[in-house]
């Protein structure tokens, strides 16, 4: 083996050991049901026997309040909104990747972003990233890509760029560009 010794496959965990593993994992950071299930799958035997153990551990964790996707989604959304100044689209995408149910994501985001001024949030994001006013079309396209990745709507992005006196021709080229990663010709 070029990268060291091969790991010996470990024996499948029993339910109590799996519960301890899950608690330890949750102690390091909050996780969704989907994420924790994925982690536990590697610790039990494949098939229905392993799934029964996973389901039992998940039920216990939910019963004790250690595992709750609604709480996770609300907390994660609050952190991403306040600390990273990310837009609704980006947080939706991140929660989807983490395995949170679509209905719960919608409900959480509506509550979290109902009183948020998206333009102010986008400006805060730009400040956090130390982005300066674009001096040319290429820099304007870079700012647009940054804000699109951060989850902001094109309406908000264009409002910010207009306030920075980006030329109308450049805005039109950006708007007509099929790929927000490349400035229009």
Task: Itemize the secondary structure elements and their pairings.
Blueprint: H1 15-28, H2 33-41, H3 48-63, H4 69-82, H5 88-97, H6 102-113, H7 118-128, H8 137-149, H9 154-163, H10 168-176
Helix pairs in contact: 1-3, 2-3, 4-6, 5-6, 7-9, 8-9
Structure explained in plain terms:
With 185 residues, this protein is an all-alpha fold. It has three domains: 49 residues; 45 residues; 59 residues. 64% of the residues lie in helices and 0% in strands. It contains ten helices and no strands. Helix 4 crosses helix 6 and helix 5 packs antiparallel against helix 6. The longest helix is centred in the N-terminal third of the chain and has 16 residues. The chain is elongated and about 65 Å long.
Question: Can you tag this structure with a few keywords?
Answer:
mainly alpha; disordered C terminus; 185 residues; single chain; 3 domains
Helix content: 55-70%
Stretches where pLDDT is under 50 for at least 5 consecutive residues are 180-185
Largest sheet: none
Estimated share of beta-strand residues:
under 5%
Helix segment count? 10
List how many beta strands DSSP finds: 0
Shape: elongated
Mean pLDDT: 90
How far apart lie the N and C ends? 51 Å
Return the domain count: 3
| Order of helix and strand elements from N to C terminus | HHHHHHHHHH
Calculate Rg over CA atoms: 22 Å
The structure class reads mainly alpha
């Amino acid at each position: 083996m070029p990268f060291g010794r091969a790991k010996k496959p470990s024996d499948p965990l029993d339910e109590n050991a799996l519960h301890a593993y899950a608690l330890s994992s949750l102690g390091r950071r909050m996780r969704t049901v989907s994420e924790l299930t994925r982690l536990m799958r590697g610790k039990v035997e494949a098939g229905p026997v392993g799934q029964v153990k996973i389901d039992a551990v998940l039920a216990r964790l939910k019963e004790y309040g250690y595992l709750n996707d609604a709480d996770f989604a609300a907390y994660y959304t609050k952190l991403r909104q306040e600390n990273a100044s990310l837009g609704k689209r980006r947080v939706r995408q991140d929660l989807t990747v983490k395995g949170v149910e679509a209905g719960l994501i919608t409900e959480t985001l509506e509550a979290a972003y109902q009183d948020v001024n998206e333009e102010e949030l986008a400006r805060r994001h730009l400040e956090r990233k130390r982005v300066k006013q674009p001096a040319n079309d290429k820099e304007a396209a870079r700012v647009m890509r940054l804000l699109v990745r951060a989850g902001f709507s094109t309406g908000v992005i264009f409002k910010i760029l207009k306030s920075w006196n980006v030329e109308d021709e450049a805005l039109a080229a950006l708007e007509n560009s099929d790929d927000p990663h490349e400035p229009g010709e």
